[in-house]
Amino acid sequence: MKKIVLTVALLCAMTAAKAQNVETFLNRYKQLVETVESRDSIGGEEKKAFKETYDKLTTEYHDTYKEKMNNDELELYMEYRTRYRRRFARDKAELIGERIDSAGVHAWRGVKKAGSKASGVLKGIFKRNKNKSK
Question: For the CA atoms of the chain, what is the radius of gyration?
Answer without folding.
Answer: 32
